[in-house]
TrEMBL record:
Pathway recorded for this protein: Amino-acid biosynthesis; L-lysine biosynthesis via AAA pathway; L-alpha-aminoadipate from 2-oxoglutarate: step 1/5
E.C. numbers: 2.3.3.14
Reaction it catalyzes: acetyl-CoA + 2-oxoglutarate + H2O = (2R)-homocitrate + CoA + H(+)
GO terms of molecular function: homocitrate synthase activity
The family this protein is said to belong to: Belongs to the alpha-IPM synthase/homocitrate synthase family. Homocitrate synthase LYS20/LYS21 subfamily.
Pfam families the UniProt entry points to: HCS_D2 (PF22617), HMGL-like (PF00682)
Name of this protein: Homocitrate synthase
EC top class, as a word: transferase
Amino acid sequence: MSLSEFAIVESTLREGEQFVKANFSSDDKVEIAEALAAFGVEYIELTSPIASPQSRRDCERLARLGLPSKILTHIRCHLEDAKIALSTGVAGINLTIGSSSLMRQFSHGKNINQIIDLASEVLTFIHQQAPDIELRFSAEDSSRTSTEDLITIYSAIEKLGVVKRIGIADTVGIITPMQIFELVKTLRQFTNLDIEFHGHNDTECANANSYTALEAGATHIDTCVLGIGERNGITSLAGFIARLYAINPEQIKSKYRLDQLGYLHELVARKVGISIPFNHCVFGESAFSHKAGIHTKAMLNNSETYEAINPRSFGVTRSILINHKLAGKQAVNHRANELGLSFNLSQLQDITHRLKTLADKQSLTIEDVDNILYSYHCQ
Ligand SMILES: CC(=O)SCCNC(=O)CCNC(=O)[C@H](O)C(C)(C)COP(=O)(O)OP(=O)(O)OC[C@H]1O[C@@H](n2cnc3c(N)ncnc32)[C@H](O)[C@@H]1OP(=O)(O)O
Ligand SMILES: O=C(O)CCC(=O)C(=O)O
Ligand SMILES: [Zn+2]
């Protein structure tokens, strides 16, 4: 299956900065942006320059780096934010404003018409000042906004003729894969603009939602390294890449430098002071560990039996574990061969039985297993 063209809007330096443990220095941001660009993301989104004096200097610094990824900043529908964003030299501006009744009432107090008027004023102003700047408009909390209101807002924004892309935001991570599919499909009928999807992970559906958004016609997906962001974060970069790799590895391998992803993860994990989770889809400690005998036997014949992803594509190695009671004779035989030992079938069954009996009593290391193999061989 071939995936249509899509781009990643990498938001580790914007949404990721909203992660509880993130506090990137200016140099951290440069290091992370360079690693993101080396991996090949199409866009790097930065915190609004209005957020703090350093945020503004960082937008200016990153915009000057000349990286191959487009540098964006993310702002409110606010003229002052727009003026400052324009002064930083970024290549694109992502504007947002809450559209759900909750956001309208408790965030900014504007009704739908006022939202349209304000967004139109700010977008038109930016376009007049800098016609080449890439503009995206997003309705924050789109998934809790009625489709009718979304169509009213996006249609009015599209008519301005200044926006390249609209954004759908699942701000509280509440939408389901089928709902986002339907929403994107519906919006696709109303607009020819590119469609970006930003999905939070509150119900652990962010990656699935991003993928189904893409299937339904979205063109841009927001990600963060390790999925960091406000609360428990958004679609993780590696998760999204793994999802697409499992469908079309060749396309993903030609689009991105997968060998750079491990370094990027270690870098961001270090900068925010967390470790990579054991069950991370690619870089987790156990992501490519194969344990049960039924699995290891088949794996030794063909690694595709129990792997959707080839770890070598990401510079990672797999391990076949035999130091446990679930080991099977074929995996034990494989280890014996690695040690230069060979046994017949009944000997292998005997050794495997000894290993299991010992593993029932204590935890084993690979050295314990090797000792069993060597001592059996000596007998
Ligand atoms: C869903 C998201 O993650 S959106 C991105 C979130 N990012 C950020 O918030 C960036 C960091 N934020 C900040 O540094 C500050 O909130 C600032 C500089 C943007 C604003 O700071 P303050 O002026 O002190 O306002 P405060 O943060 O208390 O409240 C937000 C203000 O923005 C207004 N607002 C909220 N969303 C929007 C919007 N999308 N467009 C325009 N105005 C908005 C609110 O009405 C409120 O206005 P008020 O000044 O009249 O009360
Ligand atoms: O601008 C957007 O589309 C997303 C803003 C955001 O972070 C959110 O709604 O969670
Ligand atoms: Zn968000």
